[in-house]
Amino acid sequence: MLIPQIQSITQHDRTTFSLSEGAEVSLYTAEEQKRLEELATLIFPNRPIRTSTGKAAAGYSLHAGGGNPVIDEPKKARALQHREGYYLKLSGDSAVLHASHAAGLFYGLQTLRQLLDSHEAVPETEIADWPHLEFRCANYDFRLLYPKFEKLIEYIETMASFKYNALLIEYEDKLPFKKHEHLRHDRFAFTDEQLQLLQETAKRNFIEIIPLQQTFGHLEYVLKHDAHKALKESREAIGELCPSNPGSLELATGLIDEMIAAHPDSRYLHLGCDEVWCLCLCDRCRKSFADSRPEAFITYVNKLIDFTAARGKIPIIWHDMLASCTNDELSRLDHRAVVMIWRYDGKNIEETVADFTNRCRAQGISVLGGPSIRAWDRTDDQPHPVAENRIRNIEQWTRAANRLKLPGAVATNWGTVFGMGVPYGIFETTWFLMGYAADKFWNAESDSRDYLSRFLSIFHGIEPADVLEKIGNHDPADYYEWIGKFVDQVTKNRDIAEHIRLIKLHETAVSKSRTLHKYYYRSTLFDNESERISLDLKHKATRRLLNQVRPELETNLKHFMPDEMVDHFMKSRFYLHDWLEENLYQKAPFARETDW
Question: Cα separation of 502 and 514, whole Å?
Fold first, then answer.
């Protein structure tokens, strides 16, 4: 039971691995790696970790217990060809782990930890493992709601256990701006110390932070301020800069400078530049760019790329505004940028991605992939991802990335449609799909049929046999339908399972509410006792369920988010129903019980 599923494993139940009481654990590293020692200590508690560091050490390795198990040298060599590959052998009373780089040993330790946590008796095991994708990126979206800070730190550890090695972060007004202090959220912006701890935690877990600073569109949180309103392309472009206004570039480069100063160790800076829908609406842009939207976009973005590259960072931009460009127009994009292709549906992704990827590569432009584990699927207040849509998207992207030999992909995990929108469900509802994407990013050939069992075992501590007994043959997409029914058996992350149970109840209540106000029109057409009783019964059923789930949901949310964010989320789910109750249903011609 492992996530992600590994490339090659051989197990023999005839013998098991078990360290003797006095067994030693030795760690050999080519250079000092405190995080490796910390992780080894977590895996082997109450045992001293003897470390040897220096060029005399041949790569990175760990040896626990006695004896020298037989090593399959060809398997080991194959795994160690990869920077993040590792070779692990558990036999009798000894464990041996080898890697050519620190990251490989780190991921081997993560696998060893999962094996020991998920088995009472670990069978004799030999593993040769490495990732399919070099770049495996998770996503924090801080635009509306996000977990308590201590949980953000804890969750980086979980991402590392799933072998993610990068984290794309969109801060918006949560960045502790200095020069643009007026953009900093007055309550929820991170402190300098928190931002530093976030980056240090990621680094200790071999995760590279990629900050995302919007520089063209999606700047609603900036352009709402009077000081910047004049930079909008038009009055209706509430989040888009005018590329022909010199002040736009001055503002954008100032934001870039602040982000770079806050992330001195980050190699990349994501500049956004997606969904700039209002190009060439103003007279100055039409004149400056000959009314050409591609010309306006590429001219302005090239200035951002040049500014960013000159400061030693690799700029990334989203692809969508370039997708319709001709090859000639695409050739004018500054080739120092990496283009990240985002496609969130599940239809012909390989075909469409291949065409644009090949066009970029013909121009010398590097490409990364962008599937999504949470995005718009059905409504703007989806309480959890629509699993079947997200799974289909991830699987198609994995095949495309593998066949096109893309270096990597980011599992985008958006918390809202846009910065002034309604929040989706809370971050914790996405762990199931974060694990699924990690599974595919690491091993494109992983068997999806048993993923639900693996996730329930590793993340929730539920025995696979209990799952099969209750639901028989199951599909990974069943998770959100079933986890609430397993709450009493959950031994890990129970608060998350309970939250999903509650939001499913909320979904049912909302569905009843929609039925109620759809039927309300009948009161204007048919004024009789039967109609009033029918409406009254529907109203009572709706309010009963809403009133039941409300306090439980609010209490549960306080496990995850600060109180003010809990209030924001609760209002987003109940405001409409409260308004309808006060302004419509309390004035409705219902038949009260005293009438019948």
Answer: 18
| CB contact set of 528 (below 8 Å; sequence gap of 6+) | none
- CA separation for the pair 23, 162 (Å, rounded): 28
pLDDT of residue 472: 66
Sign, CA dihedral 348-354-356-357, equals positive
Q: Higher pLDDT residue, 149 or 19?
A: 149
pLDDT at 595: 47
Tally of CB atoms within 10 A around 79: 26
Output b/e per residue, 521-547; b: 16+ Cβ within 10 A: eebeeeeeeebbbbbbebbeebbebbe
Q: Which of 586, 498, 504 is nearest to 539 (CA)?
A: 586
Among 313, 308, 268, smallest CA distance to 167 is for 268
State the average pLDDT over residues 496-522. Answer: 88
Q: Of 307-311, 508-512, 573-577, which one has max mean pLDDT?
A: 307-311
pLDDT per residue over 567-581, tens digit each? 999 999 999 989 988
Percent of the chain at pLDDT exceeding 70: 96
Domain 144-443, CATH class in plain words:
alpha beta
Give the three-class secondary structure for 28.
strand
Do the strands 60-65 and 94-99 form a parallel or antiparallel pair, or are they unpaired?
Answer: antiparallel
**Cβ-based neighbours of 376, under 8 Å, separated by 6 or more:** 344, 382, 417
The helix/strand/coil state of 300 is helix
**Rounded distance between C-alpha atoms, residue 303 and residue 307, angstroms:** 6
Query: Is 90 exceeded by the pLDDT of residue 88?
Result: yes
Q: Which residues of 272-293 are buried (b: 16+ CB within 10 A; e: fewer)?
A: bbbebebbbbbeebeebbeebb
Quote the radius of gyration of the chain (alpha carbons, Å). Answer: 27
Spell out where 283-371 has E strands.
314-318, 338-342, 366-370
Q: Among all chains, which residue has been given the structure tokens 């951002």?
A: 304
Condensed to tens digits (0 to 9), the pLDDT of residues 321-332 reads 999 999 999 999
Rounded distance between C-alpha atoms, residue 111 and residue 163, angstroms: 9
Above 90 in pLDDT, residue 164?
A: yes
Residue 53 confidence (pLDDT):
86
Q: What is the pTM of this model?
A: 0.95
C-alpha 403: how far from chain center: 23
d(CA 182, CA 287): 33
- Top CATH class of 8-129 equals alpha beta
